[in-house]
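Translate structure to sequence.
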């Protein structure tokens, strides 16, 4: 049986609340979804791994912290990064392999940067990904609203595959910990 883990990407105060980067679109709702996903994972004894971007709040330690409403427990992993790809120059891939993880359930921020890049990279590194459709967020940019960015990524990432591994975008109310990808292999 394949093992599933939850990956919480850059759910930091400075992104979710701001002021320098956020607040993200529908922050209360996305925080509630992330909290529920994390709590369900803990109840199912699934690993919860946090990724923390060291560039966020580099000059403000409060903004750099993982949001207190979804803070990691002492036994959970926190992997620090400096690139948009959570696998780049980090121990994330090795940690997942040591835990025998084959399926990642991803939530976090920001949709078009770290969530997108990490989700795509995971597939070429041998992991199937379930991106939680209502569990990631971002801010408006000069071209698109945050709502449009999120919808665009949910549409484009669903079914994205790299040889043997792919991304499914599923709502948090679905059985997201089920490694549904195996039905297609």
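Result:
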């Amino acid at each position: 049986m394949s093992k599933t883990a939850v990956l919480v990407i850059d759910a930091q105060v400075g992104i979710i609340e701001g002021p320098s980067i956020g607040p993200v679109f529908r922050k209360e709702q996305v925080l509630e979804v992330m909290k529920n996903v994390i709590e369900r994972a803990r109840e199912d004894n699934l690993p919860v791994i946090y990724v923390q971007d060291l560039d966020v709040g580099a000059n403000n330690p409060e903004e750099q912290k993982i949001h207190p409403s979804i803070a990691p427990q002492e036994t959970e992993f926190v992997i620090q990064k400096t690139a948009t790809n959570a696998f780049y120059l980090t121990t994330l891939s090795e940690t997942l392999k040591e835990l025998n993880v084959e399926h990642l359930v991803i939530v976090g921020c920001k949709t078009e940067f770290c969530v997108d890049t990490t989700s795509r990279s995971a597939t070429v590194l041998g992991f199937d990904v379930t991106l939680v459709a209502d569990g990631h967020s971002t801010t408006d940019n000069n071209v698109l609203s945050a709502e449009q960015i999120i919808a665009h990524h949910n549409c484009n990432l669903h079914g994205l595959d790299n040889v043997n591994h792919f991304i499914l975008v599923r709502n948090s109310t679905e059985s997201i910990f089920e490694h549904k990808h195996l039905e297609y292999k």
